[in-house]
TrEMBL record:
Residues covered by the FAD-dependent oxidoreductase 2 FAD-binding domain: 11-446
Entry's EC annotation: 1.3.1.6
First and last residue of the signal peptide: none
Known cofactor(s): FAD
Protein name: Fumarate reductase
The organism's place on the tree of life at top rank: Eukaryota
Cofactor binding notes: Binds 1 FAD per monomer.
Pfam families the record matches: FAD_binding_2
GO MF annotation: an example: fumarate reductase (NADH) activity
Length: 467
């Protein structure tokens, strides 16, 4: 059944992850009517899964001399020359605002960690047990409830299947839900906040066929809908679609090794001190806090069967206890001795070094920590106390994040091949491309959602005032 409804002066936000939620709330605050369309039955997308935190510089929880300039430079360096400098500047320079806004929503982000590729600790999470993605999404969803239905309509289990375009300008969307197809026409603007394409065999096969058989952390809804809609219906340009982040540490669940979906071992675990060890050599093989692409490359080179051991001391465990306890509950992290670790590896049929080699590796690393010198180049360490039992699990590289995406400018407008903006069409969050270039820094995706959600809302309000 097809029905059409006029939605003049209304913005349609497609996708309810952090980018969609931020855009929606910022627009509502300015008095704009919003229809938020989400194809699954819950709000939050992949954003709700975020476990390490969100970057911000400088914030009142940092006391380390970090600057916007340092964050900007780190992002460009990690992106291997492929970042759009203007977009990165927006990301870094507005990060303090992002934190202040989240704090104003009563979200605790008081714990700060150093993640790979960052020159300062700047990735924030809460002090409690709730992972940052859950804490942020739940708080923002609660805010949505304070708006009347005359200003906000939330459509769940509703998939945007088409952008309605007239004379090159986006004027509406077609939404499919259960057995009906609804056209929202005459809208003011449309915001694509549909996330990445890590779970889409077609886009991945086209742009990164080498990754099609990798496991992934993304939910099955991560199918690049916004990318496809923007290109097919609005003639938008896609950039750097071959830039897909493979995160080095997806957990191998020893009770379910063949499942292609993996739980992420948050980077914060390495951030507080955990090391990576090759099962077959029993040796460390990389600076665990190098960028994700470098750690992944080293893991693939040093670990046959693409599996490494991640191991934390009892002292380091305490620094990430909420994460570790959760992983233990899920059977992904185990507590035990080196003998227990070797037994686990053997049970898994992995080629495995002997106990003495693993023990020597741990002792050598404890000396590195004590002297703050590491032949592999690590400069930030956890505790040097490696006595007692360890906390360990098995990890493997996983498809995690789409760096490439829909081309946007610094106002969040979607761009065509010729560089012109598609009237009334915006994009924010993982659907857009160019911010992270060849490698995203941990904690920068949540930040991108908040910063560019805000930017897009500003552009829409500006346009509304002008017209
Ligand atoms: C396990 C995991 C841990 C992570 N940890 C961190 C972290 O600690 N820090 C960090 O910065 N980043 C982290 N990330 C990355 C980050 O969570 C995401 O990249 C980011 O949140 C993307 O947000 P988004 O709003 O752009 O998209 P999403 O949160 O993915 O939301 C997109 C939404 O759009 C909906 N949608 C898609 N197509 C349609 C359609 N056609 N119609 C209607 N709705 C549609 C989807 O169903 C989804 O709900 C993590 C990612 C994962 C998977």
């Amino acid at each position: 059944m097809l029905s059409a409804a006029r939605y003049s002066s209304t913005t349609v936000v497609v996708g309810s992850g952090l980018a969609g939620l931020t855009t929606t709330l910022q627009l509502l605050k300015k008095g704009v009517r919003v229809v938020l369309v989400e194809k699954t039955d819950t709000l939050g997308g992949n954003s709700i899964k975020a476990s390490s935190g969100i970057n911000g510089v400088p914030t009142r929880h940092q006391h380390n001399g970090d600057t916007v300039g340092a964050f900007y430079e780190d992002t460009l360096r990690a992106g291997k020359g492929l970042c759009n400098h203007d977009l990165v500047w927006e990301l870094a320079s507005r990060s303090q605002w992002a934190h202040n806004w989240l704090a104003s929503q009563n979200i605790d982000l008081s714990r700060v960690a150093l993640l790979g590729g960052h020159s300062y600790a700047r990735t924030h999470r809460g002090a409690g047990r709730m992972p940052p993605g859950v804490a942020i999404v739940l708080a923002l969803c609660k805010q949505l409830q304070s708006y009347p239905s005359s200003q906000l309509q939330v459509m769940k289990q509703s998939r945007v299947a088409l952008l309605v375009v007239h004379d090159g300008a986006v004027t509406g969307v077609a939404v499919e839900r259960s057995h009906e197809r609804v056209e929202l026409v005459d809208v003011h603007s449309v915001v694509l906040a549909t996330g990445g394409y890590g779970a889409d065999a077609q886009l991945l096969g086209e742009h990164r066929p080498d990754l099609v058989d990798f496991p992934l952390t993304n939910g099955c809804q991560t199918t690049g809908d916004g990318h496809k809609l923007a290109v097919r219906d609005a003639g938008a340009k896609l950039v750097q679609m071959d830039q897909v982040q493979v995160h080095p540490t997806g957990f191998v669940d020893v009770a379910d090794t063949n499942n292609s979906w993996k739980f992420l071992c948050g980077e914060v675990v390495r951030g507080v001190g955990a090391i990576l060890v090759s099962p077959e050599t029993g040796l460390r093989f990389v600076n665990e806090l190098d960028t994700r692409d470098a750690v992944t490359e080293a893991l693939l080179a040093h670990c046959r069967s693409r599996t490494a051991v991640i191991l934390a001391s009892a002292s380091d465990y305490l620094q990430a206890q909420a994460h570790m306890d959760f992983y233990m509950l899920k059977g992904l992290v185990h507590r035990g001795t080196v003998a227990d670790l070797v037994r686990l590896l053997t049970q898994q049929g992995l080629a495995c070094a002997d106990e003495a080699t693993f023990t020597a590796t741990i002792e050598n690393y404890a000396k590195c920590v004590a002297t703050a010198t590491d032949p592999l180049g690590r400069t930030q360490f956890g505790s040097s106390d490696f006595s007692g039992e360890y906390y360990y699990g098995l990890v493997t590289p996983v498809v995690h994040f789409s760096m490439g995406g829909v081309a946007i400018d610094t106002q969040g407008r979607v761009l065509r091949e010729n560089g012109s903006a598609v009237p009334n069409l915006y994009a924010a969050g993982e659907v857009s491309g160019g911010v992270h270039g060849g490698n995203r820094l941990g904690g920068s995706s949540l930040l991108e959602c908040v910063v560019f959600g805000k930017i897009v809302s500003e552009s829409i309000v500006r346009l509304a005032k002008a017209s």
